[in-house]
Structures are given as C-alpha cells and as structure tokens.
Design a protein that fits this description.
heterodimer; A: 321 residues; mainly alpha; MetI-like fold; globular; B: 574 residues; alpha+beta; Dipeptide-binding Protein, domain 1; D-Maltodextrin-Binding Protein, domain 2; Dipeptide-binding Protein, domain 3; five-stranded mixed sheet; four-stranded mixed sheet
C-alpha cells in the first residue's frame, strides 16, 4: 500500500508540474499580453515600459526558467494584476472554492446516489421514470444556466441572497452571525454546481445498480429470503458503488471547472473566478498558480477516490499491494 | 423511453409554471420610493472586477479609477455632464500673458482624510511621482504636451505655478487625470524607489489617506469594498451642509453583467458600473414604468464602433494583388453599401442614431454638424467598386478583382462584445449584397490588439472608448506619428496629403487658446476625414443608465462610471 501511495504521489507531482508549466507557457504564447488593455489609452512608449516592468519583453524561455526554480520552492511569482504573491491570492480563493466544492460534492452525493439506487433497482414504474426525467433535465442544463436560473429565482423571491459569500453586516458581527450568513449564501451556488453532478451520479449509480440486481447472487439471496431493502441498500450497493467511487477524482476536478461559471454568476470569490480574471488579463503567473491549484485538486481527488475504492473493494487492495 | 420524454417535457412545463407563479406572487422587486433625499444612509454600487491597486498613478483599470474617484481629488475636474472644467482643489487660476504659465490658488482649509493639511507641496510631489522614471506611470503620458512634461512649482503653501511646454488649448483640463496624493504618506516610497508597489490591494486602509469624499474602510478581496464618509471632506452644498451626503458607499464586485442587473432589479444594489445593454432595455423599461427604478437616457454615447482597413504600406507590399483594400473608393463604397438606419435598428435594437464621421454626434461640443453624410445607395457602391476593377465576372453575384480572385477580406472584431459581434455580422450581410465577401473573425481583445500592433490584418471593427471629449487630449489617434493612429500608426512622415493636412490642423487646434478657432479647426479635420473615410462608423448608441429609485441627486453622464463620477452629492431618498 505504501508503494502504491508513493507511486500516486509521484504521479501527482508530475501532473502538477505539467499543468502549472503548461498554464504559464500557454498564457505567454497566446496572442496578446497583459498590456493589451492599455491599447489606445496611452502611448507606445508607455506600453513598452509596462512590458519591461512585467518582464514581458524577455524571451519566453528565460521567463520560464526563472519562474521554474522559484515555483519548485512554492514561490509562484507575483500577480501582474494585483502586485501580490500568487500563492497568497490562490490560497485565499482556494479555501472559498474548496468550501463550495465540498458542499456541492456532499449535496450531489446525498441526492445522486440514493436516487440512483432507487431508479436502478426498480424495473419500470413512475418513480424511476420521474428520477430519470429530472436527471436528464439537470444534465442538459449547464452550470451557467442553472446558476442564472437560481439567481433569477433568488432575485424574485428574496429567499436567498442573489450572490456573494457573506454580507457586509455579517463581516462586522461575531463568528456565529458570520457562519449563519455564510450558510444562507451557500445553497444557491452549491445547488447550481451540485445538480448536474448529482444527475451524473444518479445515472451512473442507476446503471451499476441495474447490472448488480441482475447478478445471480442477488437473485439467490432474494430466493433465500433476504429482505429486498436490506439486499439493495447494504449488499448490492456495496458492489454497485464502485463505478461511482472510481470517478470521484474526475468529479472533484470537474467541480473546479464547473465553478468557473457558477462563481462568476453568483459572485462567489473563489478560484474559478480568479482564474477567469487572470486569463482575461493574461496574468501568466496567476494563471499558472490557479492551474497548479486545479491540478492539486485533481490529484488529491483522484487519490481519495482510489483510496475509497480500495476501501470498499478488497480485490483492488490485494492487486495494489 | 417515450415515457421519460413525456416526463421531461412535463418537468420543463412545470418549471416554467413555477417561475410564472413566483413572478405573480412576488412581483419584480421592492416598491418604488419617491420621498426627498436625506443626509446619511448608504448606497450599494457594483463593479465587475477588483481594483488592481489603490495607487491611481499605476492602475488604469476601471475599478482602480472608480476607487480613486471616491477617495481622491484633483486640482480641477471635468464635469462629465457639461464637459466644462470646474475648480476642485484649485480655488482659482490665472493664465499668464505668455500663454503657458498658470498660477493656481489652492482652496484654503482643505485637509486630507486623516486631518493633515493639504498644501502646494502635495501638488508638487504628485507631479514628481507621476513623472518619475522608476514609477513609469502609465498615466504620465496623458499629462504631457507634445511629449513634454509640465513643470510644477510652489511659490508658497497655497499657490502652485504650472508651466506648459507650449500653449495648450485644453489648458488645465489635462489635470483631470491627476489625483493629488499625500506627500507625507508616499514620499518615503518614492525616494526608496518603491512607489510603484505602494498602496497595493493589501495595504491596510488606515495607511492611506485622500482628499476625496470617502475613505476606504474595508476591502474584502473578491467580494466588496466598503467606504465610509471622509469626516474632513472639504465640499459643502449650497445650503452649507458638509458633503458627502452618504455615510457609507459599498462597491460589490459582481463579475457577471446579468447577475449585476438582477441585483439591481431586486433592489440589492442601487447603481451599476456601466450603461444598459440594448438587449436589457425592454426589461428595464417595464421596471422603470412601474417606478421600481429609473432608466435615464443620458443622450447619445461618446464611444463609437469603427471599421478601418490596414493602410500600412507593408500590408500593400505583402499582397499587391489586393491593393484595392487600401483604396479610398472601397471605403466610400462600403459606406454607401450599409443602411445605417437598419444597422441602428438591428445592432442596437433601435437605441442608436446613424453615425457618419469619426466623432460621435453625442460629443455635442466638438461634433461638426455640417460633415457630409454618405447616403445609403448600394447601386452607387457597385459603381464605385466597378471603378476599382471589382466586377462580377462569372455571374455568381459576388465580385472578382482584375485577376479573377474573389473580392474578400477578413474583419477582426472583439469576442464577447455583443454590439460589435452583431455589427460585424450585419456588415457581412450588407456587403454580401454588393458582392463583397467578409470573413468575420471574433478574437479576444489581446489577440486583436496584437494583430493591430503587428499590422497583421485586413480590417478591424473595434470600439473606441472615449476618455475625454476634447480631441486635443486624444492626439495619438489624430496625428500620423501617434501609436493609436490605428489605420497606419507611428508614421515617420505623413503617408498621404490629407493626413498631412490633418496633422497641421490638429497641431494648430491643440496650441490655439481661442475656443472658436479650435472648434473651426476640428470641424475642418472632421470634413477631411469624412472625405477620405479612414474610420467608418455606422451608428452611435444611446447611453442609458439604470438607477435604483432610492438614489437621489444622481447626475449620470455618458462616460464610465456614469454615476459615480460625481459621488459626493449622491444621497438616499427618505
């Protein structure tokens, strides 16, 4: 198991290295640079001075080779936009994104898996059809549209705040008020992010469950008189959960990319929004920093999903040992 | 499967019904307010990105400028509704007979937000920092005349002498770009060579001070900026009440314009960062009619969407067969091939007027009304094109040049800017009717700018954002030596006679101190440009601003930020 863990960590390291380097190099290679927005508002000399200030007049390789050793020491450079260390900016926003992602993952799992079990374990009937219909609607709505829909509903009803993470009043009050206010702001972006994932989990879980309930051992257990509910929710689920658990790593990575649109529409101060701003401004160090955080999310998610899988399937543990 | 499809359809219908019930049950927002204004209270405005710095000499982004408007003050300011300059920190000024030296008397009794007196030393320091080479301020270039800096001295604590390198028509108007920063706070940074990184986003608000109506109380990264009234602010209203009226002003950071609008409609915010998009007009009009917000038509905007061809000699040398791309007749033909009224209706959904010249009709001070306007005449356009040897040789309805190659060009535009994208699509269809094929290529702003700077394009459809109404402040566009003389920038000597004429006229226009003469000269510039059409414009959009009914004393102007440019008189209705 230790060797397996070491291998996974080495893979994570390579992934983070490739993604962060790619983030920096591709942003630098993309047409235009950080000074593009000055076009027309200042002289060519002034734009040249700005390029020199940010090192954009130097060859790409020189810039990359300067950045790389510093990045290896976890110094990701200084954001061109904000003049602040990238690590500090990314760290602040990663916490916010992590909170949103965790909430969304929890909600998606709590909704998607049970519904998948219900719809997969029954052949025909109104309830499985209703669940399938709901899943198809949720899957076909991209997070951008879902968040706009929720923002619209919030704007019309006032049930939830339209956006943001905490209100001004809460930041000036005590911790308990702050937490309550955060909890009031969380449902809207969480649901927008969680619904398509819940739908995907439901579809996967339903398919896996449908296959499992057709297995001979399930039929024989039924014939032996094992109660149907216990058989489905305890024994069959233990087997059928594997395909769902195996994609958790990808789901975590997907959460980050999905959060782009949700964070922008709901004004959630997270990593997706920071990366969007960085990409638009061609802030190469900040893009690389956000990409690094995304790669760490992906690697961590993938590792966790492997560990969960190993935990629920002894055969995999043996193979990896 | 059929059952699932039926259920899905039923769910969609159910969702729509729920939405309809919600609208019926909860209406469209808070009840209208109409009582008079009062002192105190707070307003919430939105900005779409975070400020990159609190140091205006370094930051040119919209958010940094808005923060500067709230927290800092200038010697003079341009009133964005009248276009006139107004004394601000300067109490009065006189121009010496030499035509270049202004003696400025500072307003007495003014203090910074922490109570430290404001003196002429702060003004001298401000210009020293602005022009310092280690600071390399991107604002500095906009405070020069003919590339030369202003000289600023302080004979006493309440007097400043500002000497221009040569007579300059706009005069002190140039100083609208220069907020005065406190010497006692920033001198050490300037001497240490760290001014450019001073007052960054992490600087504690208590370390900053200003002469503006508000002080930054708190910056919650990614969320909002909270401003409190400056207790030492120096302005009073005509009744002697100390400004600002508001106790607090909050800038919420809302990156998405749709969400920004929904927040305004729901009454969560009171002001937006920019004007209303044409596609939002109908929705907001209904709300305005119900009294829930105000929709102010500020008039015709100053920004123009312009099309220009690459007129650099290198472009012609690269592809001599397509020399027609640089001909004046082609531009004339395009101008006559486009139905500008239909353009305004289609692209701006009616909220625009046809535009024919390089200056927006919204710039009432400088727009020449007698500039000839090209009529919509596709037949005449075809004749002009035939004169260039561009005819339909094979009868397919599209033109070919003398070598038989199709008449075709690429039009770059900015991705994500809906009026530009719609406009480019409209132009493509109009030009197809006269036999010209246009390949519209929407690109990210950075990519468009790179292609323009590298001269690697056929034609561009781009939005010019006005920073000032006075043409002398945007010389880089008019002069052939200018880097922003977009169709053929940074020329060593004027490439054409008409450009030489424009150069001469603009040089006179800039140095003249006679307002009437300046107007005549710039009208002549517009006439020359109308004849040669280096910039083709088709419609000037109206500038509509949506404001919450709670807001009193707003004076919206057709420039960004439309309301917060004048923050100290804003108030909340009772």
């Amino acid at each position: 198991m230790l060797r397996y863990l070491a291998r996974r960590l080495a893979f994570a390291f390579v992934l983070v290295f490739l993604v962060s380097s790619g983030g920096l190099l591709l942003t630098r290679l993309a047409p235009g640079d950080f000074t593009a927005e000055l076009f027309g508002s200042t002289s060519a000399q002034s734009i040249a001075r700005e390029r020199a200030r940010y090192g954009l007049d130097r060859p790409i390789l020189t810039q990359y080779l300067e950045w790389l050793p510093r990045a290896a020491r976890l110094d990701l450079g200084v954001s061109l936009m904000y003049g602040r260390p990238v690590g500090e900016l990314v760290g602040q926003r990663a916490v916010n994104s992590g909170l949103l992602a965790l909430a969304a993952l929890l909600v998606a799992t709590l909704i998607g898996v049970p519904l998948g079990v219900v719809s997969g374990s029954r052949r025909g009937g109104f309830v499985p059809a209703l669940i399938r219909g709901l899943s198809l609607v949720s899957l076909s709505l991209p997070p951008l549209l879902t968040s706009l829909l929720f923002v619209f509903v919030a704007a019309r009803t006032g049930w939830f705040p339209i956006g943001g993470m905490v209100s001004v009043e809460a930041t000036q009050a005590g911790w308990d008020t702050w937490v309550r206010d955060l909890a009031w702001h969380l449902p809207l972006p969480t649901l927008a992010l969680a619904l398509p994932i819940a739908a995907m989990l439901e579809r996967l879980q339903a398919q896996a469950m449908a296959e499992t309930v057709g297995e001979p051992y399930v039929l024989s257990a039924l014939a032996r008189g094992v109660p149907y509910g216990r058989l489905i929710w305890r024994d069959a689920l233990r087997v059928a959960i594997r395909p769902v658990a195996s994609i958790y790593g990808l789901v975590v990575a997907g959460l980050l990319s999905g959060s782009f649109a949700v964070e922008i529409v709901t004004a959630w101060p997270g990593l997706g929004r920071l990366m969007y701003d960085a990409l638009r401004a061609r802030d190469l160090y900040l893009v690389a920093g956000c990409a690094t955080a995304g790669a760490i999310f992906l690697a961590a998610g993938s590792l966790v999903s492997d560990l969960i899988l190993a935990g629920i399937d002894p055969r995999l543990r043996e193979i990896r040992d | 499967m059929a059952r699932t499809a039926r259920l899905t359809a039923a769910l969609v219908v159910a969702l729509l019904l729920v939405a309809a019930v919600l609208v019926w049950r909860f209406g469209w927002g808070p009840a209208p307010a109409s009582a008079p204004a009062r002192v105190g209270g707070q307003l919430v405005a939105t900005i779409r990105s975070e400020p990159r710095t609190f140091n205006r000499y370094i930051g040119r982004d919209a958010a940094s400028e808005t923060v500067s408007l709230l927290t800092q003050a200038k010697l003079v300011r341009v009133n964005r509704t009248t276009g006139e300059i107004e004394p601000w920190l300067a109490d009065s000024w006189t121009l010496a007979p030499d035509g270049v030296s202004y003696t400025v008397k500072l307003r007495p009794g003014v203090t910074f937000s922490d109570g430290v007196p404001f003196t002429s030393a702060d003004v001298v320091f401000a210009f020293e920092a602005l022009y310092d080479d280690t600071v390399a301020s991107p604002v500095a270039d906009s405070v020069t005349v003919g590339g030369k800096r202003l000289e600023v001295s302080a004979p006493d604590a309440t007097t400043v002498v500002i000497r221009f390198p040569s007579p300059f028509g706009p005069g002190l108007r140039l100083l609208d770009n220069v907020p005065i920063l406190p010497k006692y706070k920033l001198e050490a940074a300037l001497r240490a060579g760290t001014f450019a990184s001073a007052w960054g986003p992490t600087t504690p608000p208590s370390e900053m001070s200003g002469l503006g109506p508000f002080v930054l109380e708190e910056y919650q990264a990614g969320q909002r900026l909270v401003f409190e009234r400056n207790p030492h602010y120096w302005r009073r209203d005509p009744d002697g009440v100390t400004l600002p009226y508001l106790d607090r002003l909050i800038l919420e950071i809302v990156p998405d314009q749709n969400a920004e609008l929904l927040r305004l409609q729901a009454g969560e915010t009171d002001l937006t960062q920019s004007e209303v998009r044409p596609e939002d007009y109908a929705t907001l009009k209904r709300q305005a009619e119900a009294g829930r917000l105000r929709l102010e038509d500020v008039g015709i905007g100053l920004d123009l969407d312009s099309l220009w061809f690459n007129l650099k000699p290198a472009a012609k040398a690269r592809d001599p067969r397509r020399a027609w791309l640089q001909s004046g007749e082609l531009r004339h033909a395009i101008s006559e091939a486009v139905d500008r009224r239909a353009f305004a209706e289609s692209v701006f959904l009616g909220a625009a007027v046809p535009s024919y010249g390089a200056v927006s009709p919204g710039n009432t001070r400088w727009y020449a009304t007698d500039v000839p306007a090209d009529p919509y005449d596709p037949g005449a356009a075809r004749t002009l094109l035939a004169g260039l040897g561009l005819v339909d040789g094979n009868g397919d309805g599209m033109l070919e040049d003398r070598s038989g190659a199709p008449v075709r060009f690429t039009l770059l535009t900015m991705k994500g800017n809906s009026p530009l994208e719609r406009g480019a699509a409209f132009l493509r269809e109009e030009l197809r009717k006269v036999g010209i094929s246009v390949d519209v290529v929407p690109l990210e702003t950075g990519a468009v700018v790179q292609r323009i700077e590298g001269g690697d394009y056929d034609a561009v459809y781009f939005r010019f954002q006005a920073s000032d109404t006075d043409p002398a402040v945007n010389l880089d566009l008019w002069l052939t030596s200018g880097a922003f003389h977009v169709w053929n920038p940074s020329q060593m000597a004027p490439a054409t006679e008409w450009e030489r004429r424009v150069d001469d006229l603009m040089r006179q226009q800039v140095s003249s101190l006679d307002e009437g003469q300046r107007k005549w000269l710039f009208a002549e510039v517009q006439r020359v440009l109308a004849e040669h059409r280096p910039l083709l414009t088709f419609a000037a959009p109206r500038f509509l601003v949506a404001i919450s009914s709670r807001v009193a004393h707003a004076t919206p102007a057709p420039m960004r930020p439309p309301v917060l440019w004048n923050p100290d008189i804003l108030a909340v209705r009772r």
